[in-house]
Amino acid sequence: MTTPLQLKRGADLLNDPALNKGTAFTDAERDAFGLRGLLPPRVMSQAEQLARILPGVRSKPSPLEQYAYLVSLHDRNVTLFYRLVMDHLEELMPVLYTPTVGQACEEFGRIFRRSRGLYITAADRGRVAEVLANWPQDDIRMIVVTDGERILGLGDLGANGMGIPIGKLTLYTACAGVAPNQCLPITIDVGTNNTALRESHAYMGLRQPRLRGPEYDALLTEFVEAVQARFPLACLQFEDFGNHNAFTLLEQWHDRICTFNDDIQGTASVALAGLFSASRISGVPLRDMRLLFLGAGEAGIGIGDLVVEALCSEGMSVEEARRHCWFVDSQGLVVQSRTDLAEHKKRFAHDHAPGRSLLEAVETLKPHAIIGVSGTPSTFTPEVLAAMAREHARPIVLALSNPTSKAECTAQQAYAGTEGRAIFASGSPFAPVTYRGKTHVPGQGNNAYIFPGVGLGVTVSASSRVTEEMFASAARTLALLVTEDDLAMGRIYPSLSRIREVSRAIAIEVATLAFDRGLARVERPDDIAAAVTAAMYEPHYVSLA
Predict the structure, then answer these.
(1) CATH number, position 314
(2) Which of 118, 124, 207, 298 is most exposed, with the fewest beta carbons within 10 Å of its own?
(3) Angle, helix 89-96 to helix 78-87, in steps of 10 degrees
(4) Alpha-carbon distance 422 to 284, whole Å?
(5) Which residues, 6+ apart, have CB-to-CB distance to 364 below 8 Å?
(6) What is the pLDDT of residue 274?
(7) CB distance 400 to 429 below 8 Å
(8) pLDDT tens across 202-237, in order?
(9) CA triplet 154, 157, 160: central angle to 5 degrees?
(10) What is the pTM of this model?
């Protein structure tokens, strides 16, 4: 059989980022594949290449320039890129994903060098299968797709949203070892209502208003069905869709195909894990907590639903469990008397007097935790934080909106506003804070603790579904990996340096559930843990000659 490698020699081999080793090609390989003279003469080890590359990353004057430098490295040498990222994940994750990826999406046209992933447009209606057929890899296991309508907290970025699927899949590989050649980023370009972006000379997407209604629904249905035909073992992750479409698509497909929405379910799982960990500090178990959410969109409702799932698993009724979750949206407290509620909010609308502000809700409900998923910065005001601190010795403050500029409060504000007593975590990273002589290390409630491990578990088991039970199990697994030392410094998540360990543990639990529930489409291995470990990609060069 002729392999792809045997078909490539010389410059063609150097221009293939999946096969290229750059200066690490040995003398024997240079002779065998016509590379002699096409590279500098010194043969370098991968470690020597890394020692040369890392200072180049660090020398860049801004995170966005670092991002562009790393993207360029990926476009040349995938193996070296992932070795660098895995070896320096804590340093480089904020560059490759939040918060830098938001700016990268905003400036996508300016920093674009080489196309990655697939673009499916409104003009492709009726031939989506033909477009998918153009992708060169057949064994795709993880797909992240966006339509660019709600990129982080930045809004409608249209085709520029491709930075999100690319970034997510980078983390699938770096954090959990899902093989890069099994990952596919997709953007469905149906236009944008961002007029300034649409009229920009740098914008590369469709220059038309966003497609809505039956035509949009038909395109998405055609897309999902075409994915099932082209990549039958793939897990389809929806990412950064607008609220209405996100809930609709999840409801339409979650019981029919292997799919999930990370904004809804991944965020829910990492937040639930944080609450489990925070309860070890506060001494208040989840079943006794009142939770107040600022924001009732995908993330907030997703967290609420998973909290209900967790409480019901402890014996509560659904109605009782929902009474533990309260929401404030842009119009005030979500209560039954309101007539303006979207369908997804109604299950959390309680019989209670209306309230117009977050502060009023905090003072009335006295929640143990406030959870910010609003995308509106500075909404956890000093008054709100002080009210939390008056009622609880260790108030829980989760400011989860991304990027950093959208956080409901900073770590400094959380600790100062609660006299240093807050149990704080955020969506984007914050540096340690010293307050009144004590150093607090804030946790980052990053979905990267959850979705890579879930994806790896689904891949190993070839699960036909991704269930709420899997996300609840992932949350419990993550919380169990938080050490007493983590809690002592105020951190309710493990160090990101342990992310591969975390992802492996979650993958084992998810794969086990898939086999136990009859969802797996491959034979159950004798040792699931060993199968997960064996499936984890390691970016080492392979001898070619």
Answers:
(1) 3.40.50.720
(2) 207
(3) 120
(4) 14
(5) 353, 355
(6) 98
(7) no
(8) 999 999 999 999 999 999 999 999 999 999 999 999
(9) 120
(10) 0.93
Residue 212, judged by CB atoms within 10 A of its CB (0-12, 13-18, 19+), counts as middle
Q: For residue 176, which phi and psi values (nearest 5 degrees)?
A: -130, -10
CA distances from 31 to 9, 10, 123, 545 (A): 10, 10, 47, 9
Catalytic residue among 168, 172, 415, 537: 168
Please give the Cα distance from 175 to 498 (Å, whole number): 9
Reply yes or no: is the peptide bond before residue 99 cis, omega within 30 of 0: yes
Q: Which H helix or E strand runs over 365?
A: helix 358-365
Distance between alpha carbon 303 and the CA centroid of its chain, in Å? Answer: 15
- Which tokens belong to 77? 């040498």
Residue 10 belongs to domain with CATH number: 1.20.1370.30
Strands (E), 213-272: 235-238, 259-261
Residue 97 annotated in active site: yes
Is 280:488 a contact under the CB 8 Å cutoff? no
CB 186 within 8 A of CB 139: no
- Surface-to-core class of residue 413, CB atoms within 10 Å of its CB (0-12 exposed, 13-18 middle, 19+ buried): buried
Say which of 67, 97, 449, 493 is annotated catalytic.
Answer: 97
Q: How many domains does the chain have?
A: 3
8 a catalytic residue: no
Residues 118 and 32 in one domain: no
Q: Please, which residues bridge with residue 238 across strands?
A: 145, 261
Residue 529: phi and psi, rounded to 5, are -60, -45
Contact 493, 486 (CB under 8 A): yes
Spatial neighbors of 466 by CB under 8 A, at least 6 apart, are 235, 254, 258, 259, 260, 265, 454, 458
Tokens of 513: 């559930």
Q: For residue 451, is pLDDT > 90? A: yes
